[in-house]
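Same chain as my last thread, 503 residues:
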Amino acid sequence: MLNKRFLILLVLSISAFISYGQHIHNENCGVSIEDQIMSELLHPNDFKGDLAKLRNDVTYVPVKFHLTANDNGSGRLETIHVLNQLCILNRDYAASNIVFYIYEGISYINQTNIYQSAGTNRNAVQSKKSNKAVNIFITQNADLDNTSSGGTTLGFYSPQGDYIVVRKQELAAKTNTLSHEIGHFFNLRHTFYGWEGAPYDKNTHGETVTFATVPGGIPNIPVELVDGSNCLSAADMICDTPPDYNFGLTAGNCSFNTILYDRNQDRVIPMKENQMGYFRDCDTFRFTEGQTDKMLANFNSTTRSYIRSSYVPNQSEITVAPILHFPEEGDTIVDFASILFDWDEVPGASEYLIEIRGSNQYQSAILKETEYLATSLRKNNKYFWTIKPFSDGNGCATVTTSNFRTGDGTSSTYEIAELKSISIVPNPVIDASYINVIVHIDDAVKADFQILSLFGQIISSTTHTLDIGQNNVSINTNVLNSGVYILNIKVDGRNSFTKFVVQ
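reply #2:
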C-alpha cells in the first residue's frame, strides 16, 4: 500500500500539470482537484464512533474572523458584515446541527501583502492564525497567483495552511461562498469532482456522456452514474449527491435546462442548490445527509481536536431592536469633539456593534456596555449611527439606525479674554449632586453659568459675580441624567464652553 508521504508527493507532482479551476471560469472557488486530495491526506476522517449520535447532538465550531486591510488600515470590510455572515453560516448549517460561534472576538490585521495577495503570501497568512478555531481571512481578493489568465477566485481553503480566505465582496453580498469553503475545510469535495478543469460541454462531450472516466485533468476519475452504482468511487464519493459534471459553471443563475444522459441512458439532473456545487443565485443552498455525516466525521477526527471543546456559545434569540437615546434622530450636536452615544440594553445580546458613518469617515467598536464615546468627528456634517446587538453564537439581530448633525465647532474654547482657566470637580460626576466650578479671572465680572445638552438645549442657568483671582462656584446637578453635558460661562454675550460627564 502506498504510504502517506508518497501520496503527498504524487499530489504535488500532479499539480504541476493541472490548471486550477479559477483559471478557466469567471467566478469560482479556488480549491483545485489536488487540494481536495491533499485535504483528505492531511486531515483524514479517522473517526470510528457513532455517527447517528453525532447527528442528534449539536456540534459547536469556533471560527476566528480576520478582517484584513492595507498597512494604513484602509480597505477593511465593515465589521457588521462579519456578524451577518455568522448568521448566514448558522442558517446554512442548521439542518446539519452545526453551530458556528466567534472565538475570542474579531481580529483586525493591517498588512497589505495579506489584504491584497493572500494567495501568494501564505506564510504571512499562516502566522496570523489562531490555534483554537477555524481561521477565516477576509481580504481584497482571493486569487491564488499573479498569472491567472482570467476569472476571479471568490475564496479558497488551503489544506496545507488549514485556513480559509474569502474576498470581502462575498460577505458584503451575503453569498454562500464561505459556507462552501467551510465544506472543503471539513473534507467535502465538489459535487462535480474531476470536472474542475474541463466542465461538461455538449459540443465536446455529446448529449450522452459515454466516457467511463472524466476527460482531462487527473486520469482515472470515474464519471458518476445516475443509478448510484459507482457513487462510492466517483465524484465526491457521497451517494445522496446526484451526478454533476460542473454544470453550474456555465448555467445562468440557478437554472439547468440541458438534456443529457449518462452511458446507461439515464438522464442526468444535478442538485442545483447543493452547497458544494457551482450553481449560483439559488434561493437556498443545502448539504445532504451524506455530506453532513462526512463533515461530522471530520470534525471528530484526530487532526481536528484543536477546534473541539466543551464551550457552549450564547445562542439566545434576539428579537428586540435596540432603542437609541442619544444622539436623537435629527439632533444637531453643538460640542462634537467627543459624543457619548447611548442606547438601551437588548435582551439576549451580550455585545453591541456601533458603527458611525459620514463625511467619508467610518468608525466602529464592539462593546459590552450600552454607550460609546466617539471622537474625531467633523463640524457641520451629517452622520448616521447604527447599533447591532449580537452574541458570539448569534449575529442575526435587527439593527437600528439614526442620524444627527455636528455643529459649527464651538468646543471647549475660551472666548472671554479675562477668563484664564476653568476646571470642574468632580468630572465625571459620580454619586454627587453638584459640580464645583473653579474659575480664575483677571477682572471682576457678572457671569451666567448655563448647563447645556450636547445639542444646545439650556437645562439650567444661574448668575454669579466673579471676583479677581480664584472663584469657586457650586452648580446643582441633581436634575441631570447620565450623559455628557456642556457648561457655558457667559459674560456680556461672550461664551466659554467646557464639557463634563454625569455617570
